[in-house]
Amino acid sequence: MIVNAEQERRELNKTVLEMLTLCISQIEKATDAFLIHDIDLAEQVMYTETHVNALDIKIERDCEHFLALYNPVAIDLRFVMATLKINFDLERIGDHAFGISKYIVDQNKKIDPHLFKVLKFDVLYETITAMFENITEAFENNDVKAARKVFKQDKILDKINVQSFEIIENEIKKNPDVIDQTLLLFGVIKKIERVGDLVKNIAEEIIFYIDAEVLKHKKKK
Hints:
By secondary structure, this protein is mainly alpha-helical. It has one domain: Phosphate transport system protein phou homolog 2, domain 2 (Methane Monooxygenase Hydroxylase, Chain G, domain 1, Up-down Bundle), CATH 1.20.58.220. The protein has 7 helices and no strands. Helix 1 runs antiparallel to helix 5, helix 2 runs antiparallel to helix 3 and helix 5 (121-141) packs antiparallel against helix 6. The protein is elongated and about 65 Å long. Plays a role in the regulation of phosphate uptake. Pfam families: PhoU.
């Protein structure tokens, strides 16, 4: 069977979408496990990390093969460059899912629902979920508008992350017994905030691939 560049691009795109879907699922499962203190679910996420790593290696090799075989230029070259960077960011998202799950298994601490509420964990989760939906839409349909939506959403995560330290400090002053829970919760908030940054990176790469617009290092307005 003769395979051309367009067919290989479609196959590579399909694999990256599989990786994207898997990493999103990993974060959602890890966060759900944290919310309901489900150690079995956390261990499932940790076990699935091997699949994430396998896809990471496959995408890297397929990109190298595409570069070597077709010597791409213009949009094809941007596609491969963007794919390599997106794959790197997705693998790191998978790492954060693994890290959250490891917290749950190793520390085995149930979080007081009050702490979830005051630290706006529901808003955090809703926001990262919306970012996942937008980035999937952007990737599947080459939708630059959907990709740009994640920039504003990422600022919500940043704000919650910044505010969390002061809130945790106040909660510990009121009740020193919650220090272990708050530190664990703070660690998970930091990881989700970093996932938001990685999703933003992916959005930038999608825009770069489609519109040849480089957003990285642009001055903030």
